[in-house]
């Protein structure tokens, strides 16, 4: 499964980068395949391990912010591994064909 999520602290002002970094740090330290872009962090693995990482990432932000907003999207596809890479490779292959 791949989960793309964002964690946004509320009530801490406009500059939220250091709070978001706390969440991303949890994801990167998890050892699960992950990727962060300007809007979301994606993490790949089994249901329980991915959701545990999301929960801990939210808790890291919640520890410092009075309120937290979470947006989450999941791609649940049993038997698929390395989906984050293969999905991008498929799109790139189609793009290179014209």
TrEMBL record:
InterPro entries: MTH1187/YkoF-like, Thiamine_BP, UPF0045_domain. Residues 3-92 form the Thiamine-binding protein domain. Gene3D superfamilies: 3.30.70.930. GO terms for cellular component: cytosol. Belongs to the UPF0045 family. NCBIfam families: MTH1187 family thiamine-binding protein (TIGR00106). This is Putative UPF0045 protein.
């Amino acid at each position: 499964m791949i989960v793309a999520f964002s964690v946004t602290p509320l009530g801490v002002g406009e500059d939220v980068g250091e709070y978001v970094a706390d969440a991303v740090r949890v994801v990167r330290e998890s050892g699960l395949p992950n990727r962060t872009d300007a809007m979301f962090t994606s993490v790949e693995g089994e249901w329980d391990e991915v959701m545990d990482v999301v929960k801990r990432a939210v808790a890291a932000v919640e520890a410092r912010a009075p309120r937290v907003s979470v947006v989450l999207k999941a791609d649940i596809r049993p038997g698929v591994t390395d989906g984050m890479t293969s999905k991008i490779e498929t799109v790139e292959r189609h793009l290179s064909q014209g």
